[in-house]
Amino acid sequence: MSPPEFYVPFQADGLVLVAVDGGAVVGFAACQACADALHLWELAVRHDAQGRGVGRALLDAVAVLARRRGLPAVTLSTFRDIPWNAPFYARCGFAEMADGEMNARLRIIREREASLGLDVANRCAMRLAIWSPSG
Prior knowledge:
The structure is a single chain. This protein is of the alpha+beta class. It has one domain (4-129): Aminopeptidase (3-Layer(aba) Sandwich). The protein has 4 helices and 6 strands. The chain has helices at residues 8-12, 54-68, 86-91, 104-115, and strands at residues 16-21, 24-33, 38-45, 73-79, 95-97, 123-129. A 6-stranded mixed sheet has the order 1-2-3-4-6-5, with helices on both faces. The longest helix is centred in the middle third of the chain and has 15 residues, at 54-68. The termini are far apart.
């Protein structure tokens, strides 16, 4: 998880979503609007709230944000083999992108992850199509 100050610009742009249950924050999603997609930097659900649809509801809200901003997709980078990462996103409609499908923005994100010491061989970029620019 990134430090809180990383998310301040996204919050100011209305791109940090918070899930609340019974008055308590149980999850959040932080996104950045890019030219080609809404990029999901972080999705987190409190452990005791997992398995209750909070993550899926946050993803649905992220897709609505992308659509409202006229962006054709939501992208993210995640761990490939952790069940609540890539497999979860795949069940929600995201598709893993091959290295050749990634644009410069996603390649820079992967380089940043490597510089932070993340195992990029075990990470993948994923994309959820919201609409197609051709129709």
